[in-house]
Amino acid sequence: MIGRRAAVGLVFAVVALGTACQPxxxxxxxPTPCYVGTFTLQTEDFTAPxxxxxxxxxISFVPGGSxxxxxxxxxxxxxxxxxxxxxxxxxxxxxxxxxxxxTFTATDHTVTFVVSTLNGSxxxxxxxxxxAVNLSAQVPGSYFDELVGLHGKAxxxxxxxxxxxxxxxxxxxx
Length: 174
Known about the structure:
Elements: H1 2-21, E1 37-40, E2 43-46, E3 50-52, E4 55-61, E5 66-71, E6 75-88, E7 90-106, E8 110-128, E9 131-139, H2 145-148, E10 152-159, E11 162-166, E12 170-173
Antiparallel strand pairs: 1-5, 2-12, 3-4, 4-6, 5-6, 6-7, 7-8, 8-9, 8-10, 10-11, 11-12
């Protein structure tokens, strides 16, 4: 009887010890999505004219400005200090210094951006239908709002630590 109790006790001890020594498996956290991080704009291309109050304008970026995008898992901040040339009813240059923030949702291939805040200014110098223009505008409150903030759906791709966003009329490579 004592031998039997000892054997049963030994079995319980082995089971208890074996259970206590088994490591608890904690799953690894999911990897950070490639669209989360801090990005500096490398290239930007307008793929279609931009609609403005004076008609469609073809926009080209002037080298030397800066744009940075900071994203977390669901929010973004875009800081812009850019100069562009415009051709259309208005011909000349525009500059914008602004900061925009917002939220986004992502799928496997698209990101949909919503603007929450937008602050800054823009300046136009050139001609409109042959008349000289020298205009300053606040952001928000002008048609520059569409150019400064990320809004709407974009296809995205990630490569070599960078992020590419393709909207309907602009392609951005960070």
